[in-house]
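tl;dr need the bound structure. longer version: we got a ligand (flavin-adenine dinucleotide) that a collaborator sent over and nobodys looked at where it sits. i said id run it. heres the input, straight from their email, havent touched it
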Amino acid sequence: MNVAIVGGGIVGLFSAYFLAREGANVAIYDENPGKYSIHAAGLIEPYRFDKLNSTGMIAKMLRYMRHGITEVRQVNRAWLIELLKSLNKEPPAEAWSLMRDMAKFSLEFYAKLSEERNDFDYKNDGLLEVYASEEELERGVKEEKASPFSPKFETVDVEGFAGGIFFPELSRISTEKLVDRLLKDLKEFNVKLIRNEAKVNLEKKNVNGKKFDKVVLTNGVWITRFLNLPVTAFKGYGIWVKGKTRLSNAIVTVNEGIAISPLSDHIKLTGGFSADFSSEWRGDYMFEKTKRLVEVEEVVSKSLGFRPCSPDGFPIIGKKDDVTVGTGACRLGWSYAPAMGEKISELVLGKVNTFGYISKYVDKLDVVQDRRSG
Ligand SMILES: Cc1cc2nc3c(=O)[nH]c(=O)nc-3n(C[C@H](O)[C@H](O)[C@H](O)COP(=O)(O)OP(=O)(O)OC[C@H]3O[C@@H](n4cnc5c(N)ncnc54)[C@H](O)[C@@H]3O)c2cc1C
């Protein structure tokens, strides 16, 4: 079976991994694979899920806006309509059960990859959220107690903060090293990497003039160029620095939504959650906001990426005819990518036709008709 994967971000790379392992003949199209995924902090934190279509989340966004961390510049209209239509609606119990399975699968899969060869700074030393006020800490504890993931957590003292919540089961990686690792593994599985933008004719299953049996769209926020799906971009920034951190764990400052992850050869700062499709850099505020925790000696590089967000924060994984779609995991694309890749391969190989709630937007499409065919 010849499969074209359009988009070599982390979801496309894991899709190729599982498909090739099952014997499919895979080609990935991406001008620069991983470029829009590597800015991420690399926290494997599937239990820190945000249900976007809730008034609680909207209140959180408004708080972020007040702190000057979030801006609303441009949203996909279809996304906004679906968000409002589904506001505060609870997904069915099976949806949470599927997410719990996907979370567990992904956490275990990164551990397994590291057991084969830890060439991507894998660490399972947990994650610490730090809170500036007692009130927010209390709210955080309440949210974790009510979480459908029932994560293990404990409250801890953190000097200079009201306190922290520590999640011992969560892990982290170096995103750029994991992309390199996957590219090596994919080469061994004979996956072809075509470093071009794909022009796609979905009806004819034709990519850059070549016909395939199946097409997989894992091209992040750019999926809306091909299909009318409710996905919008929440832009964020990554800064690689050298210097010293006060704490050796991965940390998230809840007030500002900034993650700090000390890796073997640099420290990564990430943040920003702005509804914005533009490539304008506005991430320097992170230096000021993290100076109590990180002493920066050198800035190695800066990058940005676009979280592909569905209206409810659940990933969108589904299939229409011979076209399979995988996107939408928003803040947690890395945390769910192994499971998303595995589920996408099951759809492509015809083992299943739908995953219910997370396939709903794809199941609803009448035809896979390109918005812009090439
Ligand atoms: C600042 C920041 C920090 C984050 N931290 C974390 C974290 O710690 N943990 C976590 O789980 N998640 C994190 N995320 C979220 C995560 O990075 C995203 O969810 C993830 O990158 C989405 O992956 P993707 O493969 O779906 O899309 P993308 O990474 O956007 O990849 C899509 C790819 O498609 C390609 N493409 C587009 N159109 C075409 C075309 N026509 N032809 C060929 N290729 C095309 C693009 O070049 C791109 O490489 C973070 C995000 C940001 C912004």
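gonna send this back to them w/ a short note. The chain has a mean pLDDT of 95.
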